[in-house]
Amino acid sequence: MTERDVVANNAMISAMSKHGCLEEAHRLFDSMPERNSCSWNSMITCYCKLGRIESARLIFDRNPVKDVVSWNAIIDGYCKLGQLVNAEELFVRMGSAKNSVTWNTMIAGYVQSREFGRAICAFQQMQAVCVKPTEVTMVSLLSACAHLGALDMGEWIHAYIRKKNFRVDVVLGNALIDMYCKCGSIDAALDVFHGLNVKNIFCWNSIIVGLGMNGYGEEAINIFVSMEKEKYKARWGHLRRALVWV
């Protein structure tokens, strides 16, 4: 079997999986006389996306050419299902092979399962082993701070973002706005909001609701009116949510 055949079969497996033809994809996978890491990782990822973690784990355990993508995919599958014990077991087994994606996956898993303190501890461990955080890391950490009301930590993360010159796009910007609003620091939230060159509907929604929940009903209405002047059509649901807090 040529490398070209392996690549072609991998592409077919990926296409079948995306269209929900998982059994057909698995039959093709089993019929391949030769497989590369991409072949194995495609099947692991497909099963994980469908929540069939047991099947994904069987493929993972059979995989003779595990790479960091294989480990990250199965850890992510466990995290998405809230099975942190299994995710942590594999995370520990990886040892020094972990990359930033591995750490981001575990941190996001903690946040998703509302283990916010553990998410922050994982970040501290990430720093201790000198793995560079990314914008994805920051988004997860800001979510943890928002839920904990940990303004000091949130401010430290914001300062870290500036120091490392991370690009504050709409995703990271919205995370900052949400964190500051939930921690009651409205001036900081407005600074971030007005400093964004590009805003999406989630940024507008976060600042409107944040102003309302902190007792700034008039300011929430003003932002809502400003929203109408932008390319986004105003949604009364945003205003209603804000006014609930007035």
Please provide a written account of the structure.
There is one protein chain. The mean pLDDT is 91. α5 (68-80) runs antiparallel to α6 (84-93). This protein is an all-alpha fold. The chain has a domain at 1-97: Serine Threonine Protein Phosphatase 5, Tetratricopeptide repeat (Alpha Horseshoe), CATH 1.25.40. Helices cover 74% and strands 0% of the residues. The chain is built from 15 helices and no strands. Keywords: Repeat. Belongs to the PPR family. PCMP-H subfamily. This is Pentatricopeptide repeat (PPR) superfamily protein.
Q: Strand portion, in percent?
A: under 5%
The structural class is: mainly alpha
- What does the overall shape look like? elongated
Low-confidence runs of at least 5 consecutive residues: none
Q: SSE order in H/E notation?
A: HHHHHHHHHHHHHHH
CA radius of gyration: 22 Å
CATH class of the domain at 1-97: Mainly Alpha
Q: Roughly what is the average pLDDT, rounded to an integer?
A: 91
Q: How many helices does DSSP assign?
A: 15
Residue share in helices? over 70%
Give the CATH topology of the domain at 1-97. Answer: Serine Threonine Protein Phosphatase 5, Tetratricopeptide repeat
Head-to-tail CA distance between termini: 68 Å
Strand segment tally: 0
Largest sheet: none
Q: What is the name of the CATH architecture of the domain at 1-97? A: Alpha Horseshoe
CATH superfamily of the domain at 1-97: Tetratricopeptide repeat domain
Keywords: Repeat
Family: Belongs to the PPR family. PCMP-H subfamily.
PPR repeats: 5-39, 67-101, 200-234
Organism: Actinidia rufa
